[in-house]
């Protein structure tokens, strides 16, 4: 039992859950609405820095700081989602990549974020005066994950979710059906960003120190790989993809495999991700658990139905 609750293993699961939340937000944007984003790490950073700054420099209670960080990321993500109104596919990917690099540069150079020195002394969470460490924090992030999954299931099975999927398949057809594509595209960026903001806030209060390097393109590319391999437009695909790609490097480190030099673990990891991406794109273009189309519920005897 002591080995099961070893702080090292508990931390691995905590960070895994944080990455799953991050992946759920990206899958909502890319998998369900078809808006390719290469700057999701920026939303992750906005949530982390917002919560850290509010709790360190503004002196707010960490619980309130997390809530406000989610709201702030929601609003900023909606604003940053505006470029998606005029660009699509490859152009959208390049645009979001550029936005992500701009935001990371701001993190590195702004006095508000601590610049190159980063932001430290971020307080942890406490519940009725008891500091939440290890298992306590694990239970909290697990509850956040369950709430996030429940909310995502409700959204994607509602009229909003069907509208996103129609936009994903063909935006012109969606507009001809009377779907307000402008509203739904901005909304999906805002909600997906809020998921990333929640993940970032949880990350900030876990590690207590933030550096701009933690929210760069590598994070965005890694999470996108996890989502694509697991399956676009699938919650269980995100759970599978993130868990698989996050835990494999940890298994290498845990068993200290002799065939791998642990100094080059990051290089091996990215090589493996790339190879797996090539294989999945060749044989399962939608990912292992990805959706192949829109599932419409029949309405009445005549069938049919609108998004």
From TrEMBL:
User: Quick check: keyword Cell membrane in the entry?
Assistant: yes
Q: Where in the cell is it found?
A: Cell membrane
Pfam families annotated for this entry? BPD_transp_2
User: What domain of life?
Assistant: Bacteria
**Membrane spanning stretches:** 12-29, 36-56, 62-82, 91-107, 135-152, 186-204, 267-283
Q: Which UniProt keywords apply?
A: Cell membrane, Membrane, Transmembrane, Transmembrane helix
How is it placed in the membrane, per its record?
Multi-pass membrane protein
The family database entries (InterPro entries) matched by this protein are listed as: ABC_transp_permease (IPR001851), LivM-like (IPR043428)
Protein name, per record: Branched-chain amino acid ABC transporter permease
């Amino acid at each position: 039992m002591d080995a099961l609750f070893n702080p090292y293993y508990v931390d691995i699961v905590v960070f895994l859950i944080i990455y799953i939340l991050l992946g759920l937000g990206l899958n909502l944007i890319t998998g369900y609405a078809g808006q390719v984003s290469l700057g999701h790490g920026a939303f992750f950073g906005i949530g982390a820095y917002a919560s850290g700054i509010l709790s360190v420099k503004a002196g707010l209670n960490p619980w309130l700081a997390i809530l406000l960080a989610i709201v702030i990321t929601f609003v900023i993500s909606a604003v940053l989602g505006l470029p998606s109104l005029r660009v699509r596919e490859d152009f959208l990917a390049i645009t979001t990549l550029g936005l992500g690099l701009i935001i990371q540069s701001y993190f590195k150079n702004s006095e508000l974020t601590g610049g190159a020195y980063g932001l430290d002394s971020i307080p942890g969470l406490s519940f009725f005066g008891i500091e939440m460490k290890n298992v306590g924090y694990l239970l909290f992030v697990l509850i956040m994950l369950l709430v996030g999954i429940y909310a995502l299931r409700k959204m994607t099975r509602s009229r909003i979710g069907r509208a996103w999927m129609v936009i994903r398949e063909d935006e012109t057809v969606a507009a001809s059906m009377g779907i307000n594509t402008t509203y739904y595209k901005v909304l999906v960026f805002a909600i997906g960003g809020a998921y990333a903001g929640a993940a970032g806030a949880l990350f900030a209060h876990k590690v207590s120190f933030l550096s701009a390097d933690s929210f760069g393109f590598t994070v965005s590319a890694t999470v996108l790989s996890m989502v694509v391999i697991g399956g676009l437009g699938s919650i269980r695909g995100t759970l599978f993809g993130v868990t698989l790609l996050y835990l494999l490097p940890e298994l290498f480190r845990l068993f200290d495999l002799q065939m791998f030099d642990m100094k080059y673990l990051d290089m091996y990891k990215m090589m493996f991700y790339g190879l797996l991406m090539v294989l999945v794109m060749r044989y399962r273009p939608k990912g292992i658990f990805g959706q192949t189309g829109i599932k419409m519920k029949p309405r009445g005897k005549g069938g049919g139905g609108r998004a």
